[in-house]
Amino acid sequence: MTAEVEETGARPLGSPIRGALRLALYLAWTLLLVPVQALAVALKLPLRYRLPLLYHGVCARILGFEVVVRGERAQPGPVLFVSNHSSYLDITVLGSVIPGSFVAKSEVAGWPFFGALAKLQQTVFVERKARSGVEKQRDELGARLDAGDNLILFPEGTSSDGNRTLPFKTALFAVAARRIGGTPLTVQPVSIAPTRLDGVPMGIAFRPCYAWYGDMDLAPHLWTVFTLGRMTVEVEFHPPVTIEGFSSRKALADHCQRAVAQGVERAVSGKHTPPQGH
Question: Which CATH architecture has domain 15-269?
Answer without folding.
Answer: 3-Layer(aba) Sandwich (3.40)
